Amino acid sequence: MTMSASGVPALAHSEITVPASQAMVALLGVEDQFLRLIESVYHDADILVRGNKITISGSAEVVGQLDILFAEMLAVLRTGQGLTAESVERSISLLRSGARPTEVLTANILSNRGRTIRPKTLNQKRYVDAIDENTIVFGIGPAGTGKTYLAVAKAVQALQAKRINRIVLTRPAVEAGERLGFLPGTLSEKIDPYLRPLYDALHDMIDPDSIPRLITSGTIEVAPLAYMRGRTLNDAFIILDEAQNTTAEQMKMFLTRLGFGSTMVVTGDVTQVDLPGGATSGLRVVSEILEGVDDVAFCRLNSHDVVRHNLVGRIVEAYERYDSSRDQ
């Protein structure tokens, strides 16, 4: 830290010129909403806006961070994306963790009906990159961290690019013992509630009218885990969701379905095991068995990667603190 002759930390100064008045409004937000958000985090800095110039004063470290932050926000705007309070908050968080916001927030996976799907946190970007670089990827973390959603997006991207011929989405039906038999309707109607989250993700990424046709043709298959037994899946993108509810035997059965030209993504939350009778989760066991195996990646997400309502992240953190206190 640079000190003045009196021993007080020396102030640093920086001036940023924004190219156009329209860009200044987009950069700072309506009624300076984004500027106030930045000031609430960097409260020890003095940020002055005049015309198309932003002047920053404060410690050298803070001024350096704010220089990079505004440059990154302008870079995002140049891609044609608009800024939101959420994206500004995530940019600050990414910058403080040592990552460049543009490397994460502009990494588009696919677009549909005017909506672009992309990672929103550093761990999500690492997860997406791991799917590109490995044959089998495990995405482990709490609800709302985008484990399944991003995996489905990568599957649809691979299908559209013709790198695979089909998508296979599967989940264990934990309630598939006695209670499933008492549900009304056909087998398809009975298992549908377990597979609904996968359908919901697909509807965000593919024209809903085309989904029945793709399912009928076998291009997309959504089925319970039990339907995977005895098969070899070639040229497919296979996703196993809610994998914490597999037994060790089911996990082995699933992983050995892998065929040539295929990618597997296994997602789950080891803190939410619903297996009856205290059975050991296959997701917990497999991390001990396959950790370090070549072409297999384990990506762990946490409460900081929750991209649902902000309160969801705080709820997850509260439960993590509670669980830690019980383990001590």
How far from one another are the termini? 39 Å
Mean pLDDT: 85
Class derived from helix and strand content: alpha/beta
Radius of gyration: 24 Å
Oligomer: single chain
Strand order in the sheet with the most strands? 8-7-9-10-6-11
Number of strands: 11
Helix content: 40-55%
Strand content: 15-25%
Residue stretches low in confidence (pLDDT < 50, at least 5 long) are: 175-180
What composes the largest sheet? 6 strands, parallel
Q: What string gives the helices and strands in order? A: EHHEEHHHEEHEHEHHHEEHEHEH
The shape, in one word, is globular
Provide a concise account of the structure shown:
With 328 residues, the protein is an alpha/beta fold.
Please tag this protein with its features.
328 residues, alpha/beta, six-stranded parallel β-sheet
Give a verbal description of the structure.
The protein has 328 residues and is α/β, with parallel strands linked by helices. The protein is built from 13 helices and 11 strands. A 6-stranded parallel β-sheet has the order 8-7-9-10-6-11, with helices on both faces. Helix 2 runs parallel beside helix 4 and helix 6 (122-133) packs across helix 7 (147-160). It is globular. Residues 175-180 have low confidence and may be disordered.
